[in-house]
Amino acid sequence: MANEAATPATAEPGVNPGSGENLSLETVYDIPVQITVVLGRTSMQVNQLLKLGRGAVIELDKKVGEPIDIFVNNRLVARGEVVVVEERIGVTMTEIIKAEKH
User: Is the pTM of this model over 0.85?
Assistant: First the structure.
């Protein structure tokens, strides 16, 4: 295989000047990701779960005002707050979690 000429390093977004490789974000724009927002967690026995009915309240381990966890493809990437946008629930990101280097 012939090597292609490396793209000159620039300070443009999506370009990694250290490697000389163009890491344009446009190549990943159409990749679907799964976003999961975890309001809290709890555990209960199956018999307790079966007793739940309409209007039952399940107590979670988070307190009102505590940040909620935001996962992308099952990886924690941020924390945020619940907001209401035109009668829908939304999330505002308040903290980005830096990935651990392996």
Answer: no
